[in-house]
Every structure is written in C-alpha cells, then in structure tokens.
TrEMBL record:
The keyword Membrane does not apply. Residues 463-482 have a biased composition (Basic and acidic residues). It comes from Smithornis capensis. This is tRNA-dihydrouridine(16/17) synthase [NAD(P)(+)]-like. Keywords: Cytoplasm, Flavoprotein, FMN, NAD, NADP, Nucleus, Oxidoreductase, tRNA processing. Residues 347-394, 451-482 are annotated as: Disordered. It comes from the Eukaryota. It is found in: Cytoplasm; Nucleus. InterPro entries: Aldolase_TIM, DUS-like_FMN-bd, tRNA_hU_synthase_CS.
Amino acid sequence: MPKLRGEAFWRETLRSAHYVVAPMVDQSELAWRLLSRRHGAQLCYTPMLHAQVFLRDANYRRENLYGEACPEDRPLIVQFCANDPEVFVQAALLAQDYCDAIDLNLGCPQMIAKRGHYGAFLQEEWDLLQRMILLANEKLSVPITCKIRVFPDIDKTVKYAQMLEKAGCQLLTVHGRTKEQKGPLAGAASWEHIQAVRKAVNIPVFANGNIQCLSDVEECIRKTGVHGVMSAEGNLHNPALFEGRNPLVWEMAEEYLEIVQKYPCPLSYVRAHLFKLWHHTLQVYQQLREELAKVKTLEGIVDVNRELKLRCQEEIANQKEGEKPKEGLPFFHWICQPYIRPGPKERCKENGAGGTEKGVRGKRTLEEEEDGNSELLSKNKQKKKLRNPNKSFDPSLKPKYAKCDQCGNPKGNKCVFNMCRGCCKKRAFKETADCPGHRLLFKTKYEKSLSWQHSQRGTESPEMSRRGEAEESVLLKEAGDC
C-alpha cells in the first residue's frame, strides 16, 4: 500500500484528528495517553525519545515503545530528537511498525537541547534539516512530521515551514513561541505566526500554544484555520480538556492510577502528573504536598489521593452558601482547571522589585548557582552539600576531559591514538595495531595467529597448508571482534 501524504494522511490515518495531546518528556507515557483518549483526545504523541539512545539501547526501546501492545493507543506519532540524518532514520526504522508517523522535534527550547544540539537549536541549520527529512521521507514506510517553534519574523517562519514541506514533511505542528520564550519568559503564543504558516503551506498544520480550555481550541481553529490543536500544559492540569469538562481532581487521579496499575510506568512520572493535577489543591494542603514528594510506592500514592479526597469532601460539606473560589481561581481548588503562569512583569511584582520580598527570590542564574554559595544553590545541590560538605559546584574546579580526535567524545587517557574506545577500535583494526590503553591487541593476535599457522605448516600436507592460508584472513577478522 502506498504511503499516504498530506491531507490524505491526516484524514485517513489520523482520522481527521482535531484534539491532540503533545509530546511531553516523561509525561505523555502510555497510561496518560489512554486517560486523555478516554476524555476526548483524538491523537497522541509519545514522549520525546533520543534517536541515538533508541538505536543502541534495547531496554530503552522496550520501556518507551515496545511494551505491552495496546490497540486503543492509536493513532500514535513517535517523536525523536536527533541531529544526524543516518541516526535519525535508523532509529525511526526501528519504531515505524509501532506507530502511524515519525515526528522530528524542532521545538524543544530547554538547556539540555542546547547542549545536545537538537530541538529548537537546529532551526537555523536548514541544510541539515533538509537532509534529515529527505532521507526519512525516502526510507520510512510511514510519513515524517515536524514540530517547530517560530522565528520572531513571520516571513522567516513561513519560509522555514515551506522548506520543511518541500523536503518531505507531511504534517507540521507550529508552537507559536520563539525558542527564547520559555518558563517565566513564555508569554503568549502568536497565533498570527501560525495563521501565516497555515496559509502558506499545502500540508496539514496543528497549532500549539495558549490552549487552556475547549473554548480556546475552538477559537484557535477559527482564527488560524488549522486542522487541529495540540495541548501540553492544559492537558496536564485537566485531561478532560477536550471534553469541555472540569472534573474533580481526585476522580481524574483515581482513574489515572487504575490505568497505571494495568500499564505501569516509573513512579516519578506518576508523582509529576499528580503534582500537576493537584496543583491548586496542594497550595491549600501543604502537608499532602510533602507526603506526595516522599511516598515510595504506588499504593502510597493511592493513599495520599484518598486523604486528599476526604479533606476536600469535608471542605465541601462545610462550605458556606454563596462562597466563591479564592486566589482569583475560576473554580474551587478541587476542580481540574488551568494554571496560568505569571508573566515576567507579574512575577517581578509578586516577588518584589528585587525578587526577594518575603524570602521569595527570583529565578537563579546559572552563574549564581555554580559559584559555590550555599544560599544560592538549588535544594538538590544543598542536599548534596549536606551529604558531602567538601563538594564544590564551581565549574572552574570540575575536571576537564580531553576529547577524542575523531568524534569529540572523551578520549582514553592511555590511548595511543588519542581517541575514544569506539574510534580507537576502528583505527586499530584497520591498521592492525595494538592499543594497550583500550586493551585492543589486533597486531599481537595477528602475529600469534601467523606464528601458529607457520608452526602447523611444518607438519601439514600441501592441501592443509593451502587451507591454513585461507583461514589466516578469518583469524584476523576474529581478532577484530575482541
């Protein structure tokens, strides 16, 4: 069957999906996807997967994609981050039988993406992106899609989208923020950019950004003309967002925990989900926040949810007639609802002019954290400091690793070629050389094999001698497998 493209792909394979759950690192796992699908989501993405790790690590593949078969978890798009065409395509080939499309992440703005050179930090490298998408479009049996962030300039964003379409992208998700708009600096997403992209390309477009409730979804589709709308934060705080409902927080938690019992995932994922679901309630019941942070088992989390339910029900029973939600919330804290992040200006007002009013300080800069001042260290680093008072977080004191001459990975300290083990092995095998530092003895083993061959030929018939010469090359190859 030929591979579907563009509108046909969206209409037939993705079943004309309008309501989409975003790819979220450690948060859009199978259990959460199933919960979201039960409550209106029509298409889900896997968490962002590292192509290189997926390619080399069978456990990573099993934990993130090859687990229990779940027919109701379709249509599904697997998202990878990558910066090498071959690695990306080889990883995608291993995933394509378990999904309906492969997505290339070009939208992650986090520091880890900058260090790893992927996500939104590839958006200026158009030649590389063209090669990645062209190769994927040629080799894969499923369509290739992309998720991008916008440039400040609308015209450049449009040209960027058109370049991806021309390379072979069959569906484009546009997050209407730049890579600099993240965390406390996020601000509002630009639907104007998304609308411009939608008009300029002939492939389906999904919008991402400013989605907190179903009315936002409908307004976004009306204003931008996109085929579907993707939600991340809004979905995490209210998995029934696409149903247009605002259920009780403990009901959603109970349903999610039941799914987790059938489709297990790491406890850290579960805890993170409940911190989002219970965000407003945990502002009221601080003790439950601490209990959720400390609990070590799924059964313990179920108990915390039961306690939260009892406290909220007691509060509802004692509620006075006509009482309104506090803290300016649209609903009472026990109801699933969006969390609106304060913008930069609002955050400054909350924290005082210098960001230190009432003991609350603004976000630490990287330099403040790493200068060794314990008052400015994160809580995690302060705990490490307590365990080891001599530990220093000063980056200038960290050991500097010499890089491999070939690939840039840390080289072996005693390598005769100044390379990492992988590169050293290739070169030593090619040159039939030894590297004692990496315990690679190609030359030694080859010489031993020759010596053994010569010793045997003295007692062999002519036919056996010829066979020995033929086997000599085989021995050399086996020496390369050490």
